[in-house]
Amino acid sequence: MKKIFTLILVSAALFVNAQAFKGKGDTKFDIGANIQDGGSGIRVAADFGVAENISFGVVSSYLLGVSKIDGIKPDFGDRFDIKGRFDAHLGPILTLGQNVDIYPGLDLSLRNFGAHLGGRYFFSEGIGVFSEIGFPIAKYDPTTTDNFQNLNNQFVFNIGVSFNL
Q: Based on the structure, what is the number of domains in the chain?
C-alpha cells in the first residue's frame, strides 16, 4: 500500500509546475519528488518574485521511503524539513527564451544552511517541469549522535512540475 501511495504522489507531482521567471509579482508553485540516499519523498515549494531577477520562497519536504536505522524507525520530525530560500534567476540575463529559467540560490532550513541550482522549462504559460540539486553548506550540529541527522542533511535531487500562478 505504501508503494502505491508513493507512486500516486510522485505521479501527481510530475504533472504540476510553472513558467519561467517573469520578475516582480511572479509566483511559482512547484510539486516534485525528492530523491536522496536513505529515502525519497515529496517536495512542495512556492517562490515569489520581489525584483526583476530575484525571488524569495519557502520549501517543505517529507521523506516517505525511509527504512529503519539501527532498528529504529524515524518519526515525523526526522522526516520533515522546511526551508526559506533566495533565488537569482539567470534565464532573462542569459536570454535563454521566455520558457527557460536557470536559478542558483541559498536556503536556510530547520536542519542546515545550504545551496541549490535548478532549472525550469515551461510547455505553456502555466505549466512546466523543473529539476533541482541541493546540498548543505553548514549543518547545525554535525557532532550529534542522532541516527537520523543525515536524512535532511545531504545532497538531494528534485524533479517535478511547476505552476505559474
A: 1
